[in-house]
Specification:
The structure holds 2 protein chains of 2 kinds. Chain A has strands at 5-7, 10-13, 19-24, 31-37, 44-50, 53-56, 65-68, 75-79, 88-95, 105-106, 110-114. Chain A is mainly β. In chain A, strands 2, 4, 5, 6, 9, 10 and 11 form a 7-stranded mixed beta sheet that branches. A 4-stranded antiparallel beta sheet of chain A has the order 1-3-8-7, with no helix packed on it. The radius of gyration of chain A is 13 Å and the shape is globular. Chain B is mostly beta strands. Chain B is built from no helices and 12 strands. In chain B, strands 2, 5, 6, 10, 11 and 12 form a 6-stranded mixed beta sheet that branches. A 4-stranded antiparallel beta sheet of chain B has the order 3-9-8-7, with no helix packed on it. In chain B, a hairpin with a 5-residue loop joins strand 7 (56-58) and strand 8 (64-68). Classes of the chains: A mainly beta, B mainly beta. Chain A binds chain B through residues 3-4, 31, 33, 35, 40-45, 48, 55-56, 58-59, 91, 93, 98-109, and chain B through 4, 6, 32, 34, 36, 41-46, 49, 51, 90, 92, 94-105.
Chain lengths: 115, 112
Amino acid sequence: GAGVSQTPSNKVTEKGKYVELRCDPISGHTALYWYRQSLGQGPEFLIYFQGTGAADDSGLPNDRFFAVRPEGSVSTLKIQRTERGDSAVYLCASSPVPGAYNEQFFGPGTRLTVL
Amino acid sequence: AQSVTQPDIHITVSEGASLELRCNYSYGATPYLFWYVQSPGQGLQLLLKYFSGDTLVQGIKGFEAEFKRSQSSFNLRKPSVHWSDAAEYFCAVGAPGNQFYFGTGTSLTVIP
């Protein structure tokens, strides 16, 4: 079956611009996670959705970052007034049900470059 | 606070040789531990996981890992490495609140 997909695969933008990154989770997965992976680092947790609501957004670095999942399926990560330090690979993962013991299925990521 | 340490940034092994990738965690309770592999252009793929019970767990692609509570370690092993195993390997711990904490990764190079 289809895995987690993310679009675009690459995004180049200029400092100060607004960007949206999209994640299509595996069908039926209720839990959805966003991570940020900087060069040479492991994925860093940003936000977790259970259904439509953000159950934990403690990883969002500041109020320029926002994510939604209005229908409990597709999610969009939104970054306002992008900064060069936002350049990273943004990973999305989904899980059939929430729980720290459950495998998360990862998408290939969106590489964001802020010039 | 939870954390994961992978002390080896990069490892090179010959094809057919054995492999051990180190992982140490910091966590107050019995952790949920995972190893993921990331190949270029691919998403992270789960190799194996440990929750409880037998401390030696088997995974896909011939990998295994051993949980050692006394050492706070969860090292990944493979008896004979194949060229296709070249990738980035991440250890992770799952914590209450459904967060995953990842290590910084170990890059594996396999030489013929």
